[in-house]
Amino acid sequence: MKKKISLLLILILIFTVPLAGCKKKKEVKEPEEKVISVETKKVQKGDINLKTTLSAKVAPIEEASVVPKIPGKVAKINIEIGQKVNKGDVLFTLDKTDMLNVVKNAEAAYNMAVANLKIREEQIENARTNYERMKFLYEQGAISKQQFEQYELQASSTNLEVAKAQVEQSRVALENAKSSLVDTTVTSPISGVITAVNINEGEMASSAMPAVSIANLDKVVIETDISEYLINKVKIGDSVDISIKSAGKENFKGKITALSPATSQGSMTYPIKIEIDNKNKLIKPGMFGEVSIVTEKKEKVITVPSEAVIVKEGNDVVFTVEDNKAHMKNVSLGIDNGEYVEIIKGVKEGETVVIKGQNYLDEGSKVKTAK
């Protein structure tokens, strides 16, 4: 009986063990291939440029500090800060009382000099008549040589020249006095906007400090410097973009109007001048601006976003996608402006490159494009 039971157990074990093994084999599964989510962009041709940014302060295209040519008491002021004026407009006037007296005295001195000249001319004319008479008497021996020389001296034109010089001197003094009288009316030397008024009616104005400041704001200028590396990459007439945050979010267009062929004193940079149209008067003198100068430009070249390029094993590479698989390609780079980079060799127009997620990829990685 015991033998039968033992035999039965052996048979049960023989059939159970293989079945258990088969069951375990069915539970083993192959690991699934990892799929990486990426963002992509089509490779295309486009224009790319390299810019250099320079900082500088804005100044008016033209400005003037007005001082009176003569000192005097301010009689009337015709302008105020912010007022627009044209060239020749009267800014202020000085009291004319003292200058009118100077003119009167100069006129009197001139008239006296003219009258004196006429008297001298008459005297010399009479002296010349006497001289001719005395010359005949001297030749006849009727008068001495000393007497003759006295008549000769009286007929000399020397005294007449002195009188003429006095007339000319007084004439110049009169003209200067009249000019000073005109200078009591101070006019604007340029067209522009009044930026400062430093005088008050009744106070003395002098040439020690500007009485009025004027700026022409129809155009403004930016004067800055560029390095020797850039000097031969720009030229007069080039257009530049200028950001002036205080004047608005949009960039302004400027034009290079002057470019020095020599460095600034004590510097290794070259002065450059840029003009900006300012018809709306949004740009004010003293504002700070950033000038973007295109120093290198290429047209219709293969470009990709700069972030698409990574370094693998010391090489610049991009990943392209085809049939949901990533393919690593070595590339040769050209201009890189931080946003886009020129691809000289490695990918073609129309291919799809990975712009996000590329750092997790290897050759042949399975990918899906994020939507």
UniProtKB/TrEMBL annotation:
<dbReference type="Pfam" id="PF25989">
    <property type="entry name" value="YknX_C"/>
</dbReference>
<feature type="domain" description="Multidrug resistance protein MdtA-like barrel-sandwich hybrid">
    <location>
        <begin position="63"/>
        <end position="211"/>
    </location>
</feature>
<dbReference type="InterPro" id="IPR058792">
    <property type="entry name" value="Beta-barrel_RND_2"/>
</dbReference>
<dbReference type="Pfam" id="PF25954">
    <property type="entry name" value="Beta-barrel_RND_2"/>
</dbReference>
<dbReference type="InterPro" id="IPR058625">
    <property type="entry name" value="MdtA-like_BSH"/>
</dbReference>
<feature type="domain" description="YknX-like C-terminal permuted SH3-like">
    <location>
        <begin position="301"/>
        <end position="368"/>
    </location>
</feature>
<dbReference type="Pfam" id="PF25917">
    <property type="entry name" value="BSH_RND"/>
</dbReference>
<dbReference type="InterPro" id="IPR058637">
    <property type="entry name" value="YknX-like_C"/>
</dbReference>
<dbReference type="GO" id="GO:0015562">
    <property type="term" value="F:efflux transmembrane transporter activity"/>
</dbReference>
<comment type="similarity">
    <text>Belongs to the membrane fusion protein (MFP) (TC 8.A.1) family.</text>
</comment>
<protein>
    <submittedName>
        <fullName>RND family efflux transporter, MFP subunit</fullName>
    </submittedName>
</protein>
<dbReference type="GO" id="GO:1990281">
    <property type="term" value="C:efflux pump complex"/>
</dbReference>
<keyword id="KW-0813">Transport</keyword>
<feature type="domain" description="CusB-like beta-barrel">
    <location>
        <begin position="222"/>
        <end position="296"/>
    </location>
</feature>
<dbReference type="InterPro" id="IPR006143">
    <property type="entry name" value="RND_pump_MFP"/>
</dbReference>
